[in-house]
Amino acid sequence: MCGRYTLHDKVLVKSQFGVDIIPDYNICPQKKVFTLNNNLVPCQMSWGYRAFWSKYPPNIINARVETINGKPSFISSERCIFVANGYFEWKVTKYTKVPYYHYLKDKLMFFAGIYNDKKECCIVTRPSDKRNSFVHSRQPCILQEKDFDCWLNKRYCTGNASSYDLLFYEVSKKVNSVINNDKSNISKLT
Question: Which end of the chain has fewer CB atoms at under 10 Å, N or C?
Fold first, then answer.
């Protein structure tokens, strides 16, 4: 499950998409997030998906790639792509939860996503690679740009092509609070 991520590299985002962003080191559910819609048009969506029949506020932040084509909640969804610099995942131990930051060196990260007609979206996840499964059993489906067409045209795509490049390390528990939103959230613990 991916419950927090970052998008902070203004230069990369501007050069690839022509969009100015405000750096965010603690993106959490219900925030407006930078995505590419099913036509690869940059847009803002709300992170948190509500099924078309639900009376409750949007609360689905992740969807399993193995079930999105069969679950009634996602029947009318469209595909999108989340743009990120990295994401946080927590390793659960007997006494605590330890946050880890996952990223790709010197490049943006793209997560497979889905959205509804209200521009509410969620990240699509898959089983974690063996290398980082000790942190958590699931991870976002990470897409390379060559995967975009496959994903957006609703063909099955696990998004594992970039995972061999995935780097990760332990970070401070200050990321647990959404009020902490600065570069120190991604500082490696020594």
Answer: C
So what's the pLDDT on residue 44?
A: 97
Q: Give the C-alpha separation, 51 to 59, whole Å.
A: 9
Element (H, E) at 148: helix 148-152
Q: Which of 159, 68, 74, 152 is nearest to 110 (CA)?
A: 159
Q: Note whether 97 and 9 are within 8 A (CB).
A: no
**Beta-carbon count within 10 A of 147 CB:** 21
Phi, psi of 188 (to 5 degrees): -70, 135
Task: Specify the number of domains making up the chain.
Answer: 1
CB atoms within 10 A of CB 2: 22
Structure tokens at 75: 């029947």
DSSP state of 94: S
What is the arithmetic mean of pLDDT over 88-111?
94
